[in-house]
């Protein structure tokens, strides 16, 4: 039997196969989740089924006192109770109280500490890429591919640096947050740089577009840089930085449990669907909507565009492969007929001098090149392309057309 109670009075008793972890924040909202699976019933004074507990309400006397209400939801279970203070709920199972408390604390610590490790590793990786590009400015910085990778690495590094602080910038005293030691200003700063992370998927879209122009439309790097690169950089940076700045006057950057990002304050002033909560929002009103407008929406659009571009590029490569295979078959057929013509030519009277002078260098060279010249007309249809130029093989020589 698991007993959930406030510091002053029992609230309800619940039979569980495993345990709940709960915390009642300053706003009166119970935050937590089910560690295991619910199997029995919930009661408040008398035994009732889960469905009955959903409809349970406090008495009129309690409601007139304007108490804070806390909702407990999970695995089909919902109960409502009165609680007038903001202290944490105590979860006891007689002998298992200590175990439950340690589970909640360790989970919060682990989730807070992980970004302190993964964040610096990401910063090191992004910095290594940027250093590798900048250390060879003469060759790499001049090419569009490396310039795209450089900006992407810088943006990833800034966002990872902000994430590495984890819960530290969250205002001190935040309920249910381990390691919070910041202020509203530090939280806003972290949220701003985390929001800049949206630039990264936009640059993945730019990189995919670069490959499409290079592979499918056979543009040179110089042409891509001249016609498209500048506009792509301006668009991605303007959208990313603009959306991040938009969150400042709207006060969108608040405590999001693991770090500061787009969230409401207090946390229960709005639901995830935008419905008003029991208290009024002081900061971050309509945060759920702005998350989609300035982050999730653009990111999903970028992902969809990348998928479409990759499909187009794959089909283009497959088409080129089919043309190349067909060209090889034609060359093989033409090569066999060319060999027969070459044998007839070798038996002609004009070749009788070879018996007298078998080591004539000019004649031997002409015979060796004869099969090659037979295949040249077919090479005229095949183009070998390079990022800087594309080459067209044509009879009787090799010509270059630079774009």
UniProtKB/TrEMBL annotation:
Record-level Gene Ontology MF annotations: G protein-coupled receptor activity
Location in or out of the cell: Membrane
Taxonomic lineage from the root: Eukaryota, Sar, Stramenopiles, Ochrophyta, Bacillariophyta
TM region(s), chain numbering: 148-172, 192-213, 234-253, 293-313
Annotated stretches, region: Disordered: 336-360
Keywords: Membrane, Transmembrane, Transmembrane helix
Biased amino acid composition, Basic and acidic residues: 336-345
Main location: membrane
Gene3D superfamilies (alphabetical): Rhodopsin 7-helix transmembrane proteins
GO cellular component: plasma membrane
Highest taxon above the source species: Eukaryota
Protein name as annotated: Uncharacterized protein
GO BP terms in the entry: adenylate cyclase-activating G protein-coupled receptor signaling pathway
Membrane-related topology note: Multi-pass membrane protein
């Amino acid at each position: 039997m698991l007993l959930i109670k406030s510091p002053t009075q029992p609230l309800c008793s619940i039979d569980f196969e495993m345990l709940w972890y709960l915390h009642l924040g300053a706003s009166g909202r119970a935050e937590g989740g089910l560690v295991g699976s619910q199997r029995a019933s919930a009661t408040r004074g008398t035994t009732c089924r889960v469905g009955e507990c959903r409809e349970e309400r406090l008495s009129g006397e309690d409601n007139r006192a304007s108490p804070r209400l806390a909702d407990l939801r999970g695995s089909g279970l919902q109960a409502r109770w009165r609680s007038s203070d903001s202290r944490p709920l105590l979860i006891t199972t007689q002998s298992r109280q200590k175990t439950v408390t340690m589970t909640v604390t360790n989970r919060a610590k682990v989730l807070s500490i992980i970004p302190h490790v993964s964040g610096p590793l990401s910063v090191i990786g992004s910095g290594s890429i940027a250093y590798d590009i900048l250390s060879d400015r003469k060759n790499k910085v001049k090419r569009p591919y490396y310039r795209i990778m450089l900006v992407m690495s810088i943006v990833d590094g800034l966002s990872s640096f902000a994430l590495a602080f984890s819960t530290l910038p969250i205002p001190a005293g935040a309920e249910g947050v381990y390691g919070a030691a910041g202020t509203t200003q530090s939280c806003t700063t972290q949220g701003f740089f985390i929001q800049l992370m949206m630039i990264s998927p936009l640059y993945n879209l730019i990189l995919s577009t670069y490959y499409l122009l290079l592979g499918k439309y056979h543009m040179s790097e110089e042409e891509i840089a001249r016609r498209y690169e500048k506009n792509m950089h301006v668009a991605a940076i303007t959208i990313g930085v603009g959306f991040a700045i938009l969150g400042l006057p709207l006060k969108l950057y608040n405590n999001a449990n693991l770090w500061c990002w787009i969230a409401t304050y207090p946390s229960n002033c709005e639901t995830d669907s935008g419905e008003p909560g029991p208290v009024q929002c002081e900061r971050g009103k309509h945060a759920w909507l702005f998350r989609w407008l300035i982050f999730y929406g653009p990111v999903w659009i970028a992902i969809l565009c990348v998928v479409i571009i990759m499909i187009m590029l794959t089909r283009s490569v497959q088409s080129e492969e089919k043309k190349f295979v067909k060209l090889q078959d034609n060359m093989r057929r033409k090569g066999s007929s060319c060999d027969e013509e070459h044998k007839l030519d070798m038996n002609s009277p004009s070749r009788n001098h070879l018996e007298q002078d078998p080591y004539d260098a000019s004649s031997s060279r002409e015979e060796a090149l004869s099969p090659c010249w037979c295949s040249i007309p077919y090479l005229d249809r095949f183009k070998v392309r390079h990022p800087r130029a594309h080459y067209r093989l044509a009879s009787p020589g090799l010509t270059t057309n630079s774009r």
